[in-house]
Fold:
Amino acid sequence: MKVATAEEMRTIDSETINSYGITGVVLMERAGLAAAAKVKELVDRGKVIVVSGKGNNGGDGFVVARNLHSNGWKVKVFLAAKPEDLKGDALVQYKTAVKFGVEIKPVQDLLSHAPLILTGHSIVVDALLGTGLSKDVTGVLADVIDTINASGRPVVSVDIPSGISSDNGQIMGRAIRATYTVTFGLPKRGHLVHPGAKYTGELFVEDIGFPKALLCSDKLNVELLEKRSVYSVVPERQSSSHKGTYGHVLIVAGSRGKTGAALMAAKACLRAGAGLVTLGVPESLADVFQSRVTEEMTLLLPGKEDGTLSRKASRIILDFLEGTAHLIAIGPGIGVTTETELIMETLMKNSPSPIVIDADGINSLQGKKGIFSTARAPVILTPHPGEMARLIHDSRGRKRATEETSHAKKLHTGILRSIAQNSITTALSFARDTKTYLVLKGAPTIIAAPDGRVFINPTGNPGMATGGTGDVLTGMIAGFLSQTMNPLSSCILGVFMHGLAGDIAASEKGMHSLIATDIIDSIPHAFSALMDYGRTDLS
Structure:
């Protein structure tokens, strides 16, 4: 399903009206009726408060109130504007509601008698502000939002919770904490990224008659992953296949004290379906790995006395890629040293095979954004926000960060804040600029491709915020890449299935007790759930 910005939704509205002949008042009528139908579905018949603003969102609210009133519900509308300030379609719907006998009072009445009014009503419909909000909410509107949030009443927001930016999910001064949100045509970015996702509550996307051609347009470059689209890229298992059919992955990972990262990435890679996995590890740790691997093979690499890799490992890795493995995943637990930096630079410039880079592999490229343009093969990066911030530092910023000066800390904090507030645009810009496939881990995880497409992942849960889950994701993406050799499909499958496995594990173990190996154990169940969906819902 496509995901829209406020401007993209305005364009869809405009083209629907001007090119398809559906008037704005008809769209408003359909939106209000869809929201009213959802209110009837969600709550038992009772007393309803509708809080309307002066714009089109308020017009939707008038339609909700009129429809509920006509169906015997007790409804009061509190208008956060003067009636003479209303115009266009909102004014039309206001006049119609008045003619139908809907009680409409100034919002100041609600503020003056909030405890008495709110405790006597079962639900609040929020139609104050819509998707076009461009400045912080202050004054009376802020007071209204605070009053509704403090009431404890369930809230149905129309289109988007008032005060949430539809483009990045940020709180614009004040915001409604909705129990449910009913939006129209397409979800908005602000519904899906935090903190907007939390304020949205349960989201319902309703069809109000926008032309399908507009909702599915290639001009909309952000998409919410759904089971249907993920199922469509699951690699087939042919009856005539063998282990070589599904690829050979070299995973370069681990160092002294961090051997678990390598083992988890390898096991997840196999569970994702890779035919063969070889672990490239420091030779000084050979005994540790040989005693713990089963299905995996090992490639011993030159190391240093501290248990990290030596730069001499580069040649052995490249030779292995030239003659044996189909791709490399590198980074989990390798540490960040001068030697790992040289290894990463050498691989970026010389690897003939696709590269999946995570953790210390990313940190070893800190401040070297330009190096990605030298890559011979596709590159997949899987940073969390901290690693993303280091990636987009320039080399001078990297030196300052290493020295941990006050300026460096402020710089890093500022970049982290920018990433948190603009995760989609950050990922999109980086992937385009560097021609890489970027998996920006978080809640939600964002996948960005070099061609400008972006995907938002809906699976996963807070229980996955524990050590090792990123290593599991690296292994899964590499495992899918070995079967498909399609970087974007591999990212989509890896991210969605990683979150789905985490959800299954959390349902069994609980979020507090969830650990990374639980996710690996749940990968087969995630496959079963997805394949069952394909056999039933798509048959």
Q: What stands out?
A: The two ends are 20 Å apart (CA to CA). Residues 395-403 have pLDDT under 50 and may be disordered.
